[in-house]
Amino acid sequence: MFYELLYVIPARYTDTEVAGIQAKVAALLEGAGVKISRHEEAGKLKFAYPMGQDRFGHYFIAHFEAAPEAVAKIEGGLRLSTDISRHNLAKLEREAKGPVKLLSFEEAKARAREARESRLAGPAVAPGRVAPTSVAAPVQEAAVKSTLSDEELNKKLDEILNEQVT
């Protein structure tokens, strides 16, 4: 089974300490008997809310292949670590390839706006199906018949316009 581990190290640690903590996590993973395919830093980002005195953190992502029994050992080791603020261990369908890229706040907002607009655009219809439509009753317009001739109508308009001018 393939797994992805995302963990956050608070920014209060120096770069050398962060590298040491990353090495500890790698040792924890290897001690559990897993095969690590990728272990890299995703960047330093601001937290959505302060965690204690920390407002920033170094995000790391590790992809590995492990037996389900090893996952419990890894989870226990991560919970006991005081150097890691948060962690999330997720099962992957297959091994993920390619570099890790975190979105900037503006990019995330733009993607969320596009998704919201596409949802509001209307219901998605499967190919070969007809979208449901509401059937409205036909609007009956009242026929207005003029009893005035064109000459009489022009005289009335001239009277109204002359009254307004004076």
Keywords for this structure?
4-stranded antiparallel sheet, Alpha-Beta Plaits, 4 helices, alpha+beta, 4 strands, 166 residues
Give a quick summary of the entry:
The protein has 166 residues and is an alpha+beta fold. The chain is 37% helix and 27% strand. It has a domain at 2-96: 2-Layer Sandwich (Alpha-Beta Plaits), CATH 3.30.70.60.
Q: Mind telling me the CATH class of the domain at 2-96?
A: Alpha Beta
CATH fold title of the domain at 2-96: Alpha-Beta Plaits
Please identify the structural class as seen in this structure: alpha+beta
Q: List low-pLDDT spans.
A: none
Order of strands, main sheet, comes to 2-3-1-4
Which outline best applies?
A: elongated
Question: Number of helical runs?
Answer: 4
Cα(first) to Cα(last) distance is 92 Å
Q: Mind telling me which CATH architecture of the domain at 2-96 this is?
A: 2-Layer Sandwich
Number of strands: 4
The average pLDDT is 81
Write the CATH homologous superfamily of the domain at 2-96.
Ribosomal protein S6/Translation elongation factor EF1B
Largest sheet: 4 strands, antiparallel
Q: What fraction of the residues are assigned to beta strands by DSSP?
A: 25-35%
| Range of helix content | 25-40%
Radius of gyration: 34 Å
Helix and strand element order:
EHEEHEHH
Description:
There is one protein chain. The protein has 166 residues and is of the alpha+beta class. The chain has a domain at 2-96: Ribosomal protein S6/Translation elongation factor EF1B (Alpha-Beta Plaits). It is built from 4 helices and 4 strands; from the N terminus they run E-H-E-E-H-E-H-H. A 4-stranded antiparallel β-sheet has the order 2-3-1-4. The longest helix has 17 residues, at 15-31. The termini are far apart. The mean pLDDT is 81.
